[in-house]
Amino acid sequence: MSETAQALEAGPGGPEAAAGTRQYLTFLLAGEEYGVDILRVKEIRGWERTTPIPGTPGHVKGVINLRGTIVPIIDLRERLGMPAVEYGPTTVVIVLCVGGADGRERVMGVVVDAVSEVYDLPEEAMRPPPEFGAEVRVDFVRALATVGEKMVIVLDIDRMLGMEALGAGAGTG
Predict the structure, then answer these.
(1) Does residue 98 come out as left (phi exceeding 0), alpha (psi in the -120 to 50 range) or beta?
(2) What are the φ/ψ torsions at residue 14 (nearest 5 degrees)?
(3) Distance (Å, rounded) from C-alpha 116 to C-alpha 29?
């Protein structure tokens, strides 16, 4: 069993999580490592064909039936304005619980290139994203964290995947 699977099985805030830290599931997109709060992760699934819904933006790949729940599937590369790639053997769907502006939680899946690690990150390791001006959107980025020699981009999934944001592409507001 991989470290990621063991951490998910042990559950968030497991014995390794120290006080004042949170666990983040990280994944790869275009060679960069991104993270989401592991408390939002419901499961990780291999890529499977979706049922397309006419009239949805290109980053909405369709829906799947997950044990009786209809779950929208979003290609995170396309949502973030990255070029689309053909899905391969490491492509996975991370099923997340996303909060909306209306206070309701929804289940959504995001397609990512591969799952990476689970990290315990102390709050003091989180740094706000730098200001790039109005031309570059960083409102989906909750924080940047340094782990060893690499940088992890921690995403604000509520802002990025909330129903009010889904119709907007990464480059529009």
Answers:
(1) beta
(2) -60, -170
(3) 10
What are the chain's domains?
Answer: 3-12+21-166 (2.40.50.180)
Sequence-distant (≥ 6) Cβ neighbours of residue 89 within 8 angstroms: none
The runs of H, that is alpha helices, within the chain are 3-10, 76-79, 157-161, 163-166
Cα gap 1→45, rounded to integer Å: 15
pLDDT tens digits, one per residue of 70-120: 999 999 999 988 999 999 999 999 999 998 777 788 999 999 999 999 999
DSSP 103: S
pLDDT in tens, 22-55: 999 999 999 999 999 999 999 999 999 999 999 9
pTM score, two decimals?
Answer: 0.81
